[in-house]
Specification:
SH3 type barrels, 5-stranded antiparallel beta sheet
């Protein structure tokens, strides 16, 4: 399993697929699958049956979750997204810098790889 350079909460730019060119916020990172879930992008339709909700209130009849066609965000391969630098607002590759701290171990910090930016992504 390889560590991912993109984390939950990052803004990413989609490089390939039906949503190419759009940007969105990462809702979930899945390092074991090398995929990310991006808010409102790569939407797919899923058909579901009505199902009873577990532990319904004792009052009245059983409660059901509605069935029908549901839109869900599907995971996108990590190779199809690129991080958007919060400082320069452009898609960028990610580098690392070791930041020294007093009386503690050095901290590994992500940085923008663009020559005219080079700002820290993690504050």
């Amino acid at each position: 399993m390889k560590a991912m350079k993109i984390r939950k909460g990052d803004t990413v730019h989609i490089l390939a697929g039906k949503d190419r060119g759009k940007q969105g916020r990462v809702l979930e990172a899945r390092p074991d699958e090398q995929r990310v879930l991006v808010e409102n992008l790569n939407m797919v339709k899923r058909h579901s049956k009505p199902k009873p909700i577990k532990n319904p209130s004792r009052m009245g009849g059983a409660q059901f979750s509605p069935g029908g066609v549901i839109d869900l965000a599907a995971p996108i391969p990590i190779s199809n997204v690129m991080l958007v630098c919060p400082t320069c607002n452009r898609p960028t590759r990610i580098g690392y810098v070791m930041k020294e701290r007093k009386d503690e171990a050095p901290l590994k910090v992500r940085v923008c790889r663009r020559d005219d930016c080079r700002q820290e992504i993690d504050k």
